Amino acid sequence: MENVIELEHVDAGYPGVKILEDVSFSIRRGEIFVLLGGSGCGKSTIMRHMIGLNAVQGGVLRVLGMEMNRKNRSRILRKIGVMYQSGALFGSMTCLQNVMLPLEEFTRLRKKQRMDKARELLAQVGLADAESKMPSEISGGMKKRVAIARALALEPEIIFLDEPSAGLDPITSSALDDLILQIRKDRGTTFVVVTHELPSIFKIADRCAMFDKARRGMIAIGSPAELRNSSDDQFVRRFFGRGS
To answer: What is the pLDDT of residues 153-173, one digit of tens each?
Structure first.
C-alpha cells in the first residue's frame, strides 16, 4: 500500500528541547494509525511536526510525497484536516459558520454552495439540526463532531485527531469512534490519532506507534492485538494489559 506519511530518522522537539530521537515509521493510505504513550512522551509533538506547526530537528518527514518544510507546507496543508483536542471552534460563529470557514478561505464556491456543503458535512456527522447553534450551546462531543465536519470541508486525504475521546463519556466516545470508521469507509480517508484510551485504540486502530519518554524514542509499532499479545517490552505489555 502507498505510504502517505514517512518519517526517516526524525528527531522531534521544540527549539532547545529534544524529546524524541531517531524515529522512523510510515503510515499507509486509508490506515487509522494511533500515536500513543505516557504523558510527555512526544506523541503530540510528532503530530505537530506532521501538520507543520514545528520543524523536525533532524531527519526527514514526508507527507503525501512532499518533504514537510517551509516551501511545501502550504501545499500540504491544503490536503490535510486537523481536529484539535478541544475542538477549537470559533465561539462567535454558529456551527454552520465554523464548518463553512475553510470553504470561504480556500475555495471559490458561491455562498449557497458553501452553505450546502457545510450542511451536508454536519449531516454526515449527525448534527443536521445544530447548524444555527453556537459552540457554547452544544456538548463536548458535539463540538468535536463539528470540528471533524470542518476538518472534512476541503476533502483532505489525511485527518489528524488530537485526543478525540478526551473528556467524553464512554457512550459518546464510542459513537465518535463509529464516526471515524464510517468516514474511512465512505471516503478512504487516512486518520492519524493521538489517544491513550484503550477501548478506542482496539476499536479503530489498524496500527499503533508507541513512544516512551524515558527512552526518548519509539519503542513499539504494530496492531493493538500484536502489541498486547506479542510484545517483549514490559512497558508496552503493561500499557495494553491495564484494562485486563
So the answer is: 999 999 999 888 877 788 888
- For 9-20, what is each residue's pLDDT tens digit? 999 998 889 999
Q: Are residues 116 and 230 in the same domain?
A: no
* Predicted TM-score (pTM) of this structure: 0.91
Residue 196 zone, left/alpha/beta (φ > 0; ψ -120 to 50; rest): alpha
Are 232 and 162 part of one and the same domain? Answer: yes
Q: CA–CA separation, 235 vs 110, rounded Å? A: 53
Q: How far is CA 64 from CA 174, 204, 209, 224, in A?
A: 30, 22, 19, 25
SS3 assignment for 39-98: CCCCHHHHHHHHCCCCCCCEEEEEECCEECCCCCHHHHHCCEEEECCCCCCCCCCCHHHH
